[in-house]
Design a protein that fits this description.
- Helices cover 34% and strands 18% of the residues.
- With 414 residues, the protein is α/β, with parallel strands linked by helices.
- The protein is globular.
- Strand 14 and strand 15 form a beta hairpin.
- It has 13 helices and 16 strands.
- The strands form 4 sheets. A 7-stranded mixed β-sheet has the order 2-1-3-4-5-6-7, sandwiched between helices. Strands 8-9-10-11 form a 4-stranded antiparallel β-sheet, with no helix packed on it. The chain has a 3-stranded mixed β-sheet with strand order 14-15-16, sandwiched between helices.
- Helix 4 packs parallel to helix 9, helix 5 crosses helix 6 and helix 8 crosses helix 11.
Length: 414
């Protein structure tokens, strides 16, 4: 597609106009510089004039954060999940008492009002007499809530993530007095970033407001349309494909379904093209089901829900190597390679428990009737996910077609 220099010049000015970054910031940048997300972050950095530390090795992020001590980092949802899983694994490795404190701190996070801007709504408790023996433990719990990674010397002001919003309880590095997670939204065709939550006026469950200069409207069928200096000129040498998504007056059809509040906050509700239809005529948004599973299962890395033209839904599940290896140590599988861990009956039984938990909150036609654990995690090298860690559904379905067909053997197609 054609994204000329004017697109990136606009993005640089628009990012600066949000006031979210300044010349005093330190950015940690892991995204590929050839990717639009990495490119827009570079554009914003040049305009603001702050320091950026670059290391594209995803497996080094957790190790690098205490060294770089960034004031902000932008990433896709999977990165925050990996960071959270890494922190949880370290807490488990520290012993039962430390892990219980970690779980307690995660449960006792500050409340955020759903659908309303403003500050965190802190838990309020009546003052009670505290015995001296409890004070040290309470101080440790408070430190963990305030600073889950121990980066107090240079606290992160904010973390930005662009993509479809996760359920509220899956914002894994939750908002604390030292860290904000602000969700945003954009596409390659819109130069990566079109919306972002405005700092302290964030609104949970939304992707925020449009960047200055970007227009938005909702079509009659609910599709989100964008227009502005960040929109592409078109797909290179593909005029027919360009005409399908770009109107003559500049409005771009995103393919996403959403709702716009009266004061300009956008909520993404569905993906127009990602809906699948079962053989029974029911429509399912697989990304929604996949997001809900990630909300309940702390060991999942990637999940693909399949069910188009089938009479029930199935899933291919890849587990996070760090998290499942730590789990294996406590469940009689210590020292086993990843492939043996995921093939073990105990692992399958554990994941089955989370699948059943997921199904309790779904409509009958959305439920996962069968699943298979993959022998390895999905990765960029095999072409199963993009450099920004987005799932390539056709590739995964083609590669693991034998597992999908195995789950439907003997089923009645109707």
């Amino acid at each position: 597609m054609r994204l000329p220099h004017d697109n990136w010049s606009y993005m640089a000015k628009a990012i600066a106009a949000t006031g979210l970054v300044t010349k005093d910031d330190i950015q940690y940048l892991w995204l590929p510089l050839a990717h639009v997300f990495g490119k827009v972050l570079t554009s914003g950095q040049i305009e603001a004039g702050h320091v950026t530390a670059v290391d594209g090795r995803v497996d080094k992020i957790i190790e690098n954060l205490p060294v770089v001590r960034p004031t902000y980092m932008a990433a896709v949802p999977r990165i925050f999940e990996k960071v959270y899983n890494g922190v949880a694994a370290k807490a488990r490795a520290g012993g039962g008492a430390k892990y219980k404190i970690f779980q307690w701190a995660a449960r006792r996070r500050p409340r955020v009002r759903e659908g309303h801007p403003g500050q965190l709504q802190a838990h309020r408790h009546r003052e009670r007499p505290r015995r001296p023996a409890h004070q040290a433990r309470r101080r440790r719990q408070a430190r963990l809530r305030q600073d889950p990674r121990g980066l107090r010397r240079q606290p992160a002001r904010l973390c930005l993530r662009v993509g479809r919003p996760r359920p509220r309880h899956r914002l894994l590095l939750r908002r604390t007095p030292s860290i904000h997670i602000l969700e945003g939204y954009g596409l390659t065709e819109s130069s990566a970033a079109s919306f972002v939550n405005p700092g302290e006026a964030y609104r949970t469950g939304t992707v925020g407001k449009p960047l200055p200069g970007t227009e938005v409207r909702i079509a009659d069928d609910g599709e989100i349309l964008l227009r502005g200096p960040g929109i592409m000129e078109g797909y290179h040498k593909l005029p027919e494909k360009t005409a399908e998504v770009l109107e003559s007056d500049g409005w771009f059809h995103t393919g996403d379904i959403g709702e716009l509040s009266p004061d300009g906050y956008l909520r993404i509700t569905d993906r127009k093209k990602d809906l699948i239809k079962t053989s029974g005529g029911k429509y399912i948004a697989p990304a929604e089901v996949e997001g809900q599973f990630k909300a309940v299962c702390p060991y999942v890395s990637n999940i693909l829900v399949h069910g188009a033209d089938r009479n029930f839904c199935t899933a291919l599940i890849a587990l996070d190597e760090i998290a499942i290896t730590e789990w294996a140590k406590e469940n009689g599988l210590e020292g086993k390679p990843y492939a043996e861990i995921v093939a073990a009956p105990a692992t399958v039984e554990m994941v089955d428990g989370y699948v059943r938990q997921l199904n309790e909150g779904l409509q009958r036609w959305q439920t996962i009737k069968k699943f298979r654990l993959l022998p390895r995690d999905l990765d960029v090298e095999h072409g199963e996910i993009t450099p920004s860690l987005k799932l390539k559904r056709p590739v995964v379905e083609r590669e693991y077609k034998h597992l999908i067909e195995e789950m439907y053997e003997g089923s009645r197609e109707a």
